[in-house]
User: Fold Glycine cleavage system H protein from Mucilaginibacter rubeus.
Amino acid sequence: MNFPAELKYTKDHEWIKVEGNVATVGITEFAQSELGDIVYVDITSLGKEVAKDEVFGTVEAVKTVSDLFMPVAGTVTEVNPALNNQPELVNTDPYGEGWMVKITVADAADADSLLSAGDYKTVIGV
Assistant:
């Protein structure tokens, strides 16, 4: 499994890439493999301020629905439009074309408390 070192991770299986005060958020390769085939991504938080650990949407797989938790506080500025017609991008390219939201980060230092790739691997036992 792939866990890019330049990303930060949460125990809830989200990843975040912070660039200045903008961040991209998605779910990890591990999370998508556990969920199975993703059939729908529902993100209704566009334009909203979302607190750290608050639900910002859901991802629906064939057999389950899972909440998406915000890694850091921020305002959702963009939702990946490709996921409307191709939710399977979360399965095939979770760290690339399968990203979920872009946010304006309230405090970039919040990301410092998140897990490194190595720490995340320990959490999931790989």
